[in-house]
Predict the structure.
Amino acid sequence: QTVLQGIILLPLRATCITFILLLAWLFASIATFCQPGRGYLPLKGWRRRMIQTSLSCLTRTAFFVMGFQVKVKGKVASLPEAPIFVAAPHSSFFDAIICALTGMPSIVSRAENLSTPVFGTILNSLQPVAVSRQDPDSRKNTVAEITKRALSRGQWPQVV
C-alpha cells in the first residue's frame, strides 16, 4: 500500500511543485519587467506587493505539497522593529520557509545564484544582496549594502 501511494503521490507532487515554480517565475518576471534602477533601487508599489504576496503564498504552498506544515508561534517582527533577520544555521533549502513566513525579505546570496535559470529570476525579484566570492572587497561591500538597507527607513525590505 505504501509503495502504491508513493507511485501515485511522487508524480503528482512533482507536477504540482513544477507548476508552482513556473508560476513563481512568471510573477517574478512580471514584477521585475522594465524595473527602474534594476538592483540598485528598491521595488515599490505594486511590484513589491506582488512579490511579497504571490511568492510568499506560492512558497508556502510548495512546502505544503512537499509535506511540510509549519506553525508560527508568536509574532513576526515588523520592518521597523527588525530591519535585519538572522537565520541559523543557514545551510539548506529550509531557509525558504523562513522567507515565506516573513513576507519574502531580501536575502544575502552568492552572485552566481542570480544567473541560474528560473531560480535566478525568482531570486532577483527578492532584491538580494549579492556576494561575489572572487571579489576581495566582497565582505566589506556586503556589510555596507546590508547597513545601507537596514538604515533606509523602510524603503528596502527586511534582509535575511
